[in-house]
Specification:
heterodimer, A: alpha+beta, Jelly Rolls, 2 domains, six-stranded antiparallel β-sheet, four-stranded mixed β-sheet, globular, B: alpha+beta, Immunoglobulin-like, 24% helix
């Protein structure tokens, strides 16, 4: 009797730990699969046929169809630079220097990855349309209400969590495998200005 | 002796947990019901170019689509022979990427890598004889043979938008892109 209980307990524990750890690693990544710089996370071999099984599982679950890491890099932020979850009830300044790539774009989504309805139908800013300062730096204001410079509306649902994606097409610097390199200091900071 | 049996169970649990972990990770790409291929497939037939509608709230095909990129794709099926993709590349920013059904991007080329003008891509299954390109193809035409590791896959054209005037031209160029069985 005790043996049966033990065996059941072993199987239950194994199932829990096995699937739980798999889910966690596929969702969050590890230092081997995922580059983390401030609030930004990027799966370094995403879309690449040589990617490891964790990256492939992550991709299959995401429903996305990203370009291979030698053609583009994707950086995702779910928090501000201080680590607090991005929320539509707060106002943020996303500021950084120019990025050495052929084209790049900063877009905001809800936590399901879909764009947020707003009267100006503005969902992103890209490197060709962004208003910049004289020194090449830029600032995107992510907020509910209209702001000067580059205003990226976060919609009027205060309970909504936000996801910001920086997609960089054809980075000009690559490593030996051809994977695009984006220097950590080129990624913008996400500063929380105020909350409702 | 009394300690050994729980220790055995513990070891068993750890080994089993590891196996379940590995199985879950390896199986996921084959069983994920809503991967990109599954989302694109219902939009139309194989071997035709299909433009994705511009991103609007509630009308996206895939999560995290770029709002400032226009997409057109061809879900190719090589069981009837090679497939030809033709497009007029308007600028350096365009990207044409080829994927397996699981989302491996095995080939990608940018507008900057190609000669301007009309580009013809012949998608051929790896190991199958390469069809001869038309000998009398016009000079400005560039013919690229893309080796697809599987019979099925997706060719996706990305046309990043840059400024209102160029956007209209980009949309126009995307409409003229075609995908069809390659017939000689």
């Amino acid at each position: 009797m005790r043996t049966i209980v033990f065996v059941i307990a072993v199987f239950a524990a194994a199932l829990f730990i096995g699937t739980g750890s798999a889910w966690y690693v596929i969702d969050h990544g590890t230092p081997l699969t995922t580059e983390r710089i401030g609030p930004w996370a990027s799966w370094t071999t995403e879309g690449n046929p040589i990617a490891d099984p964790y990256t492939k599982a992550h991709l299959a679950r995401s429903g996305r169809l990203p370009l291979t890491s030698t053609a583009a890099r994707y950086f995702v932020a779910r928090t501000d630079s201080d680590g607090y979850a991005l929320s539509a009830s707060c106002e943020y300044a996303i500021a950084g220097p120019s990025i050495n790539a052929r084209w790049w774009s900063l877009a905001v989504y809800n936590d399901q990855g879909f764009v947020i309805d707003n009267p100006s139908q503005r969902y992103s800013f890209n490197s060709d349309e962004l208003l910049r300062h004289a020194d090449g730096t830029y600032r995107v204001n992510l907020s509910k209400n209209a702001r000067p410079e580059n205003w990226l509306p976060s919609g009027d649902d205060p309970d909504r969590n936000l996801v910001v994606m920086l997609r960089i097409y054809s980075p000009r610097v690559t490593d030996a495998t051809g994977t695009g390199q984006v220097l950590p200091d080129r990624l913008p900071k996400i500063e929380r200005k105020s909350c409702d | 002796m009394r300690l050994r049996i729980p220790l055995l169970y513990l070891l068993l649990a750890i080994v089993l947990a590891g196996l379940i972990h590995l199985a879950a990770v390896l199986a996921l790409p084959s069983v994920a019901p809503k991967n990109a291929f599954a989302r694109l497939k219902p939009l139309g037939d194989a071997n035709v170019m299909i433009e994705l509608p511009p991103v609007k709230p509630g009308e996206e095909t895939m999560p995290m689509q770029a709002p400032d990129v226009r997409y057109a794709f061809c879900r190719y099926d090589l069981s009837g022979g090679p497939v030809r993709l033709s497009a007029v590349i308007p600028d350096d920013l365009w990207l044409i990427a080829f994927y397996t059904p699981k989302g491996d991007n095995f080939y990608a080329v940018s507008g900057a890598d190609m000669r301007r003008g009309k580009v013809d891509m012949i998608i051929n299954e790896t190991g199958q004889p390469v069809p001869e390109a038309d000998a009398d193809a016009p000079e400005e035409e560039e013919v690229v043979v893309v080796e697809s590791p599987l019979k099925e896959g997706i060719a996706m054209i990305r046309a990043p938008l840059s400024g209102a005037s160029r956007s209209a031209r980009t949309a126009e160029a995307l409409k003229s892109a075609t995908c069809a069985p390659f017939a000689r």
